Amino acid sequence: MSELRDQLQEIIEGEDVALFMKGTPQMVMCGNSHRALEALRRAGAPVTAVDILPDPRIRQELSDISGWPTIPQVFVRGELIGGADIVEELEQSGELEQTLAEKLGPDYRGAADERVVAVA
Amino acid sequence: MQEAFPGDEVSVEDRTGTGDHFQVTVASERFDGLSLVEQHRLVYDALADPLADGTIHELRISTKGAG
Questions:
Q1: How far A35 CA sits from the closest chain B CA (Å)?
Q2: d(CA A98, CA A91)
Q3: In CATH, what number is assigned to the domain containing residue A97?
């Protein structure tokens, strides 16, 4: 297994909420990544963002791991929640907050600040 | 899409008029009992080729069961 793959796996499994996106929360480079980020923010999710743009291998390895072909991808405690469409849909129905509370505990809001992790 | 979801309610909208940004909406019995992730995976499977070769630049998906 490659080092990059290990790194990605570690983020997926180790972070409460991992958002793989184009760009960073400070400089979003894609409308769908923006939609996913905003939905997660509205739900109060403690987002750890990973920019997939610096190296095309990041996206390749990530999709190999998840079996999901597009970006963004959102994971909560290792489980793929979906892309922008699903995350938005779940946020609107209230299910996203429900899932976060179930997996992270009822006090997940404000438990951690939004942050960015770089992979190389 | 019609081949993958025969007899189902399938609509494909070209969102930007440029033939590469699509909104796909499907209502199918195949989705009954599946999670949203599983439902979207079926749509991705049906569109694997145009996704892989870049014909589809952006895809928005909306799915629901038939029930």
A1: 12
A2: 9
A3: 3.40.30.10
